[in-house]
Amino acid sequence: MGYADDVFDLTDRVVLITGGSRGLGREMAFAAARCGADVVIASRNMDNCVAVAKEIQAQTGRAAMAYQVHVGRWDQLDGLVDATYDRFGKVDTLINNAGMSPLYDKLSNVTEKLFDAVVNLNLKGPFRLSALVGERMVAAGRGSIVNVSSTGSLRPGADIIPYAAAKAGLNAMTEGLARAFGPMVRVNTLMAGPYLTDVSKAWGLDQDKTNRFGQLSLQRAGDPREIVGAALFLASDASSFTTGSILRADGGIP
Ligand SMILES: NC(=O)c1ccc[n+]([C@@H]2O[C@H](COP(=O)([O-])OP(=O)(O)OC[C@H]3O[C@@H](n4cnc5c(N)ncnc54)[C@H](OP(=O)(O)O)[C@@H]3O)[C@@H](O)[C@H]2O)c1
Q1: Does the annotation mark 236 as catalytic?
Q2: Alpha carbon distances (Å) from 178 to 40, 67, 164
Q3: What CATH number does the domain containing 224 carry?
Q4: Would you say 144 and 234 are in contact if contact means Cβ atoms under 8 Å apart?
Q5: Rounded to an integer, what distance in angstroms lies between the CA atom of residue 159 and that of residue 163?
Q6: Which residue has the higher pLDDT, 105 or 1?
Q7: Of residues 130, 153, 167, 195, which has the active-site annotation?
Q8: Residue 189 and residue 197: Cα distance in Å, rounded?
Q9: Which is nearest to 145 in space by CA: 159, 163, 127, 157?
Q10: For residues 126 and 173, what is the distance between their CA atoms, to the nearest angstrom?
Q11: C-alpha closest to that of 249 among 234, 177, 17
Q12: Would you give the DSSP letter of residue 98?
């Protein structure tokens, strides 16, 4: 294990994770701390962020900061970045993970408010955070940004069109940011397929009656813990020659 430990080592790195309080983000936050990182857990519900931060500190001995933020609100993001740099002095890895896709029954019932909320959270927020953190990473001479996208951006279902479009924008943005921030800073897309988290419950994936998962090569949905290997790869120096890429951790979508 010694060799792998070195490759994925995050000792004394600082990892900022939006949506780190639940689901995939929570797993990635624990994993980063277990590899030695101090972490920032940022989401709307402060109680959840504090609870997860306390658990991480107790289990790993690493520092964990909770921060309340709505990632879809541009004007709240400077505060998150400033608070992180005030506390830790740097960010080594930014994981733009917070995301959501509200359900709608038909396209004409998609309101402008819903459309904007989806784009704001899944695309606009990650852009602003990447801009704020990425430039500081360049000045510091190192860094990795991981944008959590969705296979919906490649295979957009009829029920997730605004979300799929926002995530497709995120894929494109990732490649552009990799050019903007190279060679010091790497930027990659971590593309998730179906995982059994709160958002997938809202989508009905946990009680899927149509056996949609049967079409995946692995014929099942993912456990949230199964995102960790891919996330650590992109977050750490294990991926030192990987940038502007899309890594699919999706069970093998058809
Ligand atoms: N699970 C899947 O099947 C799946 C598939 C493809 C892609 N993804 C992507 O993977 C990422 C994580 O999804 P998940 O399944 O882990 O979702 P989840 O279980 O619903 O967790 C979402 C996290 O994001 C936070 N969040 C939601 N809206 C936010 C906002 N406006 N501002 C700040 N934080 C916000 C939530 O905390 P608060 O409620 O406290 O804000 C929570 O910590 C998302 O980008 C999602 O699009 C997931």
Answers
A1: no
A2: 23, 27, 21
A3: 3.40.50.720
A4: yes
A5: 9
A6: 105
A7: 167
A8: 20
A9: 127
A10: 9
A11: 234
A12: -
Task: Give me ligand 1 centre to Cα 29, in Å.
Answer: 13
Query: What tokens does 235 get?
Result: 């977050």
pLDDT (0 to 100) of residue 52 = 98
Kindly state whether residue 254 falls inside one of the protein's structural domains: no
Respond yes or no: is residue 67 known to be catalytic.
Answer: no
221 CB contacts (<8 Å, ≥6 apart)?
193, 194, 195, 196, 200, 205, 206, 208, 213, 251
Would residue 81 count as lying in a domain? yes
The whole model's pTM is what?
0.97
Instruction: Note down the domain range covering 239.
Output: 3-249
Average pLDDT over residues 42-58: 98
Rounded CA separation 46/69 (Å): 8
Q: Quick check: CB of 84 below 6 Å from ligand 1? A: no
Determine the Cα–Cα distance for residues 23 and 5; give it in Å rounded to an integer.
25
pLDDT digits (tens, 9 = 90+) for 105-148: 999 999 999 999 999 999 999 999 999 999 999 999 999 999 99
Number of structural domains (the chain) is 1
Residue range 74-91: average pLDDT?
A: 98
Lowest mean pLDDT among 15-24, 178-187, 210-219, 242-251: 210-219
> What residue type is 237 in one-letter code?
D
What six digits make up the tokens of 214? 């049967």
* Rg of the chain (C-alpha set): 17
